[in-house]
Design a protein that fits this description.
The protein has 516 residues and is mainly α. It is built from 14 helices and 6 strands. It has 3 domains: 204 residues, Alpha/alpha barrel (Glycosyltransferase), CATH 1.50.10; 78 residues, no CATH class; 192 residues, Glycosyltransferase, CATH 1.50.10. The two termini are 32 Å apart.
């Protein structure tokens, strides 16, 4: 049997990297996707800029009160839905900035976004688009609103429904303090025009957010949830738990100490570090990168308690040496060479983050031979996305023009929607979705909605169940629990194929290590 055709070259990943990063341009809310920056097939006007939309969004709890209107335009659609969540947007900005600091050579000024050619790496321009939205989300008292819920249509510019926001919370405010402080570190060190002033503004805003969260450590808001009478505001649940809030306090304190040198933040950081899962001997996971990444940074800072940096690195190495990580590699647990803790909803982000955990070992004082080994292992996780999996699937959308023979044909997204004559599917619609979107991936826990097998929408409606749950994804081993489909409720394809900016940044961070 003839193998798939592939190219051998030193720059084999460059165009894939470019396509995957450009998805953030297509995800921008309130921005015109115009030629030449947009491919003509996916050109669109600025979305959610009409009356009652993002420039004059109202509180979800004061929908008829014009005085509650706020200008909250900008940011990115979080995923296949168009909502904008502070906690997740902040972490996506942080991860992109981290990738830039790790591999600045990969991030040029030539990705064909509107800011390209301005002498600033495009990733810093794109992150600024996200940070500027977070600035608009910050209240005068330093607190930060939690969510903006947007209407959905295909194309996005056709959405005419109103935008609503949710109140500030401790988690959204700490997330913003964290990313503002980290961004101040990064932009303040570039020496590029305007970045020092921008870093100073971010620093001031980070301090204000920290102060509010310290005074309000237990303020929660559950969107789309009966607990806060917020059903209909957004989709995914952005609120976290006590451990999540502690992780955000840890990270915010680390980065604030890094930019200020103040003992207040050092003491807070060291308290949270000593109470962290890592230092309690619970190891590392691909779900706790926020705190783990911050601790790696803290270990490099001057003025920290004696021996703490060495202890952090030793604990990180010990955790990776367990059966879960190096043990799974050496035991060949996965026949496709990329073992993870569990296959679940969003398994592709777990794969990408696990690959990044192996690359992170290079920061903990490994010998040169060991550095080669961790890079080789991390590459296995990258290869998984590019077809080294039981389906021979490239888990990026519409990559045929880039050499993929079996890439994602359709995925759950409000723009590239089921039934769209233009964008539904590469095979069955005029254009299909743009290239480069990473989908959620195999999900062995997938099932149809709980209202099935009855017709959830009633007889004669399109919202009906099939005779049985789709197989695949059901009825398959975990790595095969996947199919290309973009059907909405009640078949809920979002559990398998929806894209997410959080998936995308994890993949981009991993891929950047292999871009020359």
């Amino acid at each position: 049997q003839k193998s798939a055709t592939f190219r051998i070259a030193g720059n084999v990943y460059d165009e894939v990297f470019r396509a995957a990063f450009r998805t953030f341009f297509y995800q921008r809310a309130g921005y015109t996707k115009a030629v030449p920056y947009a491919d003509p097939r996916w050109a669109d006007g600025a979305s959610h800029m009409g009356k009652g939309q993002d420039t004059e969004a109202r509180s979800f709890f004061a929908k008829v009160d014009a005085s509650s209107a706020r200008d909250l335009h900008g940011g990115w659609y979080d995923a296949g839905d168009f909502n904008k969540y502070t906690n997740w947007a902040a972490d996506n900005c942080r991860t992109l900035l981290l990738s830039y600091t790790e591999n600045p050579h990969a991030w040029g000024d030539d990705f064909d976004i509107p800011e390209s050619g301005n002498g600033i790496p495009d990733v810093l321009d794109e992150v600024k688009w996200g940070l500027d939205w977070l600035i608009r989300m910050q209240n005068d008292d330093g607190s930060v609103l939690s969510i903006v819920s947007l209407d959905v249509a295909s194309p996005p510019s056709a959405a005419k429904g109103p935008s609503f926001y949710g109140p500030a919370s401790t988690s959204s405010t700490r997330s913003t303090a964290e990313v503002f402080a980290y961004a101040a570190m990064v932009y303040g060190a570039t020496g590029l025009p305007g970045h020092r002033e921008y870093a100073d503004e971010l620093s001031r805003r980070a301090v204000a957010a920290w102060n509010w969260a310290e005074a309000n450590p237990d303020k929660t808001f559950f969107n789309n949830d009966v607990r806060d009478a917020s059903i209909g505001l957004g989709a995914g649940q952005q609120e976290t738990d006590d451990a999540g809030r502690a992780a955000k306090r840890l990270a915010a304190a680390v980065y604030l100490y890094a930019i200020t040198g103040l003992d207040t933040y050092r003491r807070a950081a060291e308290f949270e570090i000593r109470e962290s899962k890592l230092m309690r001997g619970e190891g590392v996971t691909p779900y706790d990168l926020e705190a783990q990444d911050a601790m790696r940074v803290y270990a490099t800072l001057p003025g920290i308690s004696s021996g703490l940096g060495q202890k952090i690195n030793a604990e990180l190495r010990r955790a990776m040496a367990t059966r879960t990580f190096w043990g799974a590699i050496e035991g060949e647990d996965d026949p496709y060479f990329a073992p993870v803790m569990a296959m679940r909803w969003g398994s592709n982000t777990v794969k990408a983050r696990t690959g990044n955990l192996f690359m992170d070992e290079a920061k903990t004082g490994l010998a040169p031979a060991e550095l080669i080994t961790v890079r080789d292992v991390a590459a296995r996780y990258l290869h998984y996305f590019h077809g080294v999996n039981p389906l021979g699937k490239v888990y990026l959308s519409n990559m045929g023009a880039y050499g993929a023979e079996n890439s994602v044909d359709s995925f759950y997204h409000g723009w590239f929607a089921d039934g769209s004559a233009l964008w539904d599917s590469v095979k069955s619609s005029k254009y299909g979705p743009p290239p480069g979107f990473l989908v959620g991936g195999p999900n062995p826990s997938y099932s149809w909605d709980n209202c099935c097998p009855k017709s959830c929408g009633g007889p004669g409606t399109r919202y009906s169940c099939l005779k049985a749950p789709l197989a695949p994804p059901t009825g398959q081993p975990p790595l095969k629990a996947y199919r290309d489909f973009n059907t909405g409720w009640p078949l809920n394809s979002w559990e398998v194929t929806e894209n997410s900016d959080s998936y995308q940044v994890a993949y981009l961070r991993l891929l950047a290590n292999f871009v020359d």
